[in-house]
Specification:
This protein is an alpha/beta fold and 223 residues long. It has a domain of 151 residues: 3-Layer(aba) Sandwich (Rossmann fold), CATH 3.40.50. The chain has 8 helices and 7 strands, in the order αααβαβαββαβααββ. It has a 7-stranded mixed beta sheet with strand order 3-2-1-4-5-7-6, sandwiched between helices. A hairpin with an 8-residue loop joins β6 and β7. α6 packs parallel to α8. The longest helix is centred in the first third of the chain and has 17 residues. The C terminus is likely disordered.
Length: 223
């Protein structure tokens, strides 16, 4: 059985000087993450290939110094990984379940990540509180539902970056009516990490044209 703390050569290339922090997170995932049921026990031996590297290359698509909201953060994938590899980002981990937010807060403290906030809430409950540059999500919901949660969190011109699997193209087609209703500027598939991770990470990138209409009676947070 492999040691989850042993980073492959690709990790050294992708994480650079942040690799020791990534290794500490891998150790925490393989221990507390498994014990608390945030990841399956079979995932412990393939954390790097299946999870950490897959999430880390998402940084290729995130503009410099962005404010990022990670919906349904769970075990911190991709939000915590993105925070490790990109300290220039300001990241909010949005997660409704207490046991998961507890895990995330402990991880943030353990890794000494000054660029991360953990918030216990559902995306639809806090839409009026944010106008982020980027929203990320991994294994949260089909795209047609995900966009209804994510786009209200974005500023006009902001981007949803959703990590997807083999059904990415099909989900994009199925979400077409919702995307049209929200008046998005761009909706496309992208492959990240080509030549660095195998297989490359597939994402759906959706660029908001305008701020989606808020519910009647809602108020924008004062600054």
């Amino acid at each position: 059985m492999g040691d989850p703390r042993s980073a492959p050569a690709e990790a050294r290339q992708i994480f650079g000087d942040a690799l020791p922090v990534a290794e500490r997170f891998a150790e925490f995932l393989a221990d507390a993450g498994v014990v608390r049921g945030l990841i399956g026990p079979r995932e412990a031996d393939r954390l790097w290939e299946r999870h950490l590297l897959n999430c880390a290359v998402l940084s290729e698509a995130v503009p410099e110094s962005s404010t990022v909201i990670d919906i349904g953060s769970g075990a911190g994938l991709p939000g915590l990984v993105l925070a490790i590899v990109r300290p220039d980002l300001s990241i909010t981990l949005l997660e409704p379940l207490l046991r998961r937010t507890t895990f995330l807060s402990e991880a943030v403290d353990l890794l000494k990540l000054a660029n991360v906030e953990v918030r216990r809430a559902r995306a639809e409950e806090v839409a009026r509180d944010y106008e982020a540059d980027v929203v990320t999500a991994r294994a949260v919901a089909p795209l047609e539902r995900l966009v209804t949660w994510a786009l209200p969190l974005l500023r006009p011109g902001g981007e949803l970056l959703a990590l997807k699997g083999e059904r990415a193209a099909q989900e994009l087609d199925e979400a077409a009516p919702v995307l049209q209703r929200f008046g998005v500027r761009t909706a496309e598939l992208r492959r990240l990490g080509q030549g660095r991770v195998e297989p490359p990470t597939t994402i759906v990138r959706v660029v908001a044209e305008r701020t989606p209409r808020r519910a009647k009676g809602s108020r924008k947070r004062s600054s």
